[in-house]
Amino acid sequence: MLAKQNFNYSFLAKLYFCFAVCLLLILAVEISSATDSNPVSKKVIVVGGNSAYPPYEFLDNEGNPTGFVVELTREIANEQGFEVIIQLGESWAEMRRMLETGEIDILQGISYSEEREKTLDFSPPHSFVSHSIFAYEKAHPVHSLDELTDKNVILLGRGIMHDYFIQSGIQANIIPVPTLADAVKLLSTGQYDYAVIATMPATHLISEFRIKNIKTVVKGVDTKKYCYAVKKGDQAILALFNDGMEQLRRSGRYRMLQDKWFPAYEIHPWVAEYGPFVLIFLISGLVVSLIWSHSLKQLVANRTAALQHEVEQRKQAAEELKRQQLQLMQADKMATLGILVSGMAHEINNPIGLILLNLPTISRVNSDVMPILDKYYFENGDFIMGGLPYSQMRGEVPLIIDEMNESAKRIKKIVEDLKHFSRRSDVKYDEEVDINAVVQTSMRLIGNFIEKTTNHLSMNLGSQLPPVKGNPQRLEQVIVNIILNAAQALQDKSKGIYVSTFYEQSSKSVIIQVRDEGMGIHPEYLQHLTDPFFTTKRETGGTGLGLAISDGIIREHGGIMQFESALGKGTTVIIRLPIETREQ
C-alpha cells in the first residue's frame, strides 16, 4: 500500500514537471516572436529611387544621388544605426520591378494610392507631390484631364498618373517614358502636345534644360502623398524608417531639410486632404497563469505605445501640411508677379520717360516766364495763380517741379528693379573669375561714397585664390549692393567696414565676407532679408529688391549667401562660391 502511494506521488511530480516545461517553452516562443518582430537584423538596406525627380531625388553633376529624400534617407540611417545603399535608376518602371522582385528593399519616394496599397506598405508621407498638365506652346488649350481624351499624352511609365489614366478609363493615347527628363525633352520637340507630370520636378527640369516652348496649362490637377514603400508585409524595414522620420521631426532636422530643398517660389496652391488614420486593437483571452498574464500585459503596453506614436505622427503631418499650404500660396503670388511685371514694365516706362523728358522743359518755361510775372506783380500787386497768391506760388513752383522729377526717377528705378528681379537670366556663367579682382573693381566703383560714410575701411584679400566659374559683372553688382548696404547701416564715420576673401577647404568654396559696425538687424528680420519687397529702409527709398536680386545672382553661380547680425554691433554677410559650378 505504501509503495503504491509513493508511486503515485512520483508520477504526479513528473507530470507537473512536464507541464511547467511546456509552459516555459510556450513563453520562450512568445517572447522570441515578440522580440523578432521589432528589430531588423539586416544591417545594409538597399534603397531605390528616381534619378531625375528634382528636388526630391536626382543625380548631381558627378553622378551622385542627392535631393531632399536622399538626404532624408541618409539622416534616418544615421539616426537608426544602419547602412544604406542608394540606387537611383534611369527608369522608374525598372525601379518598381526591382522592389517587386526583392532586388531593392525599399523605395524612398513613391506616391500613395489605394490600388498600390494592395501590394505595398507605405510610411506616413514625408512630402506631397502635385501634378499639372504641361503643353507644347502651339498646342490647343485644355482645362481638365477629361479634355485629354483622344489626345497624345506623355506620362511617366508606371508613375501615379499612368496608373490613374488606366484606372479612370480616360481614353487618351498614352506615351510612357522612363523618366521625367525624357518627358519634358520629348514634349519640347513638338512631336506630342501634352504631358501630365509632377509639377515641381518638371519645372526644375524645364529650367535646367533652358526649355522655353513648354507652358503649364492646368496647375494642380492632382496631389498625392509622397512616401517610403516596401513590399506588402515587410513591416520591419518600414518601421525603421517610420521611427527615424519621427526622431528627425522631433530634433528639427526634418524641418531643416525641407527649408533647404523647398524654396518658397517652388510651391503650388492646393490644399491636400489628409484622411483620418485609425488603428484599433482588440485584445482578449483567458488568463491561465501569472506568466501568461504578464505576457499579455506587455503586449498591450507595446501596442498602446505604437498607437500613441502614430497619433503624434498624424498631428505633425497635419501641421506640416498647413505650413506647405501657406508656402504654396506665396509661391503662386511670386509667379504671378513675374508675369505682371513683364507685361506692365513697358506701359509704365513710356509715360514715365515722357514725364522725365518734359519736366526740364517745364522748368525752363517757368524760369522764362518768372521775370514777366514778377514785373506784372510789382506793377499791379499780388494776384491768384493756381488757386494761391502769386507771392506764395512763386517759391512753390520750382519745388513742385523738383519733387515731380525725383518721384518720376524713383518710379523708373522701381520698375527697372522689378524687371531685373522677374527677368529670366540668359547671362553666361562660364568665365574664370578672379574674386579678388571683382572685389577691387567694386570698391573702385563706390570709393567716393565709402569715403563719405566711414574713416575705417579694411580689405584683407586672400592670396592665390582658385578661380570661380561665373560672370564678373553680375558678381560686381552683388558686392556693390552689399557694401552700399553696409555703409548705409553705419551711424557715423568712426564705425568701420571690413572686407575679406579666403578659400575654405572643407566646402571647396571661395568666401567673400563683408562685416560692418552698423546698427545690426533684428533677429526676426534675418530670415526675410532676401524676400522680395522686404525692406527696413522704405522711408529712405528702399524697394526691398536689392538683396533678393543679389541672392538670385549668387544662387545662379551655385553659391549661397548667409547673414549674421547682432543689434548695436553690426552685420556680417558671408558669400560662399564653389570653385566648380554647374554650367548655365
Summarize the entry for a quick read:
The chain is of the alpha+beta class.
Report what the structure shows.
The chain is of the alpha+beta class. It is 49% helix and 21% strand. Strands 1, 5, 6, 7, 8, 9, 10, 11 and 12 form a 9-stranded mixed beta sheet that branches. It is elongated, with a radius of gyration of 34 Å.
The N- to C-terminal Cα distance equals 105 Å
Poorly predicted regions are: 1-9, 27-39, 264-283
* Percent of sequence in beta strands: 15-25%
Query: How would you sum up the global shape?
Result: elongated
Structural class: alpha+beta
Number of helices: 15
How large, in whole angstroms, is the Cα Rg?
Answer: 34 Å
Give the integer mean of the pLDDT values: 81
Quaternary status: single chain
Largest sheet: 9 strands, mixed
The number of distinct β-strands equals 21
Approximately how much helix is present in the residues? 40-55%
Main attributes of the structure:
nine-stranded mixed beta sheet; single chain; alpha+beta; five-stranded mixed beta sheet
Question: Topology, please?
Answer:
Layout: H1 2-36, E1 44-50, E2 52-53, E3 57-59, E4 65-66, H2 68-80, E5 83-89, H3 92-101, E6 106-111, E7 120-122, E8 127-136, E9 152-156, H4 160-168, E10 173-177, H5 180-188, E11 194-198, H6 199-208, E12 214-231, H7 235-251, H8 253-261, H9 290-380, E13 384-385, E14 388-389, H10 390-422, E15 431-433, H11 435-445, H12 447-453, E16 456-461, E17 468-470, H13 472-489, E18 496-504, E19 509-516, H14 523-526, H15 546-556, E20 560-566, E21 570-578
Parallel strand pairs: 1-5, 1-6, 9-10, 9-11, 16-18
Antiparallel strand pairs: 2-3, 3-4, 6-12, 7-12, 8-11, 8-12, 13-14, 15-17, 18-19, 19-21, 20-21
